[in-house]
Amino acid sequence: MSRKCLFCPNPVDSAEHLWSDWILEDLKPVEPIHIKFGKTFAKWVDDPEVRIKCVCQKCNNGWMSAIESENKPHMLAMLNDKPTVLLPTQQKLLTRWAVLKSMILDGSSPQRRPIPFYTECERTGMKPPSRSLPVNTLTWIGRLEVKAFHAGLTNTFGGINGIPKAFQGCVVTIIVGHLVIQVLTMHVLPMFATNRIRPVDKPGAWNVDLLEIWPVFGEKCWPPKVSFVLKGSTPHHIAHLINRWKIGEDITK
Ligand SMILES: [Zn+2]
Fold first, then answer.
1. If we measure between CA atoms, which residue out of 25, 108, 94, 27 comes closest to residue 60?
2. Given the DSSP bridges, would you call strands 137-160 and 163-188 parallel, antiparallel or unpaired?
3. What's residue 164's pLDDT?
């Protein structure tokens, strides 16, 4: 039986690179980073040339390709370590790119994740004309001292107002070149549906390591004050970012 595209009713009819050509071109000489905490990763990609079989050609060559080209100028700059001012519109575009990749990582292997975290409604909402982002989504960017590649997804959960496990979340951390992006989307209990959730993360130097780009609040100057590093015992180690959120069980099983 042919599978349905993650974003529309068409059958899956293409195996596309997860990363677009302009990113692959730039990442060719780069080594992937292997950082793992036990069996914590629900989804893990260590090959930049990984192909995905979860979308149709129409989506891939249409609105998904538009998200790529809209983000190319500022992403290429940051990927190559050029200081970049991000206007609110660019922060929204970059969040759309990162959420799209999160949805693909989340939905691209039905054997491992039979039911994706992102709902069909959240996925189809990404397309024009609505171009909406899932509610309760937070996005941050940072800088890694060297050029690298990483893409990993973990599940998380947390309490709200003393109610344990009031939200389930999906965390995706992506490193392309010097650019680090982390997206957290939360599904909350209906009683908290109208709250804006600020979940509690593990201690870290997040205020100097990261810039919050979603929700948007003014323009942001990348890079942040302090960069993530790959070596040494320091709060700025990239492993702390990947391990920033409490690891939850895979709720999709
Ligand atoms: Zn489609």
1. 108
2. antiparallel
3. 87
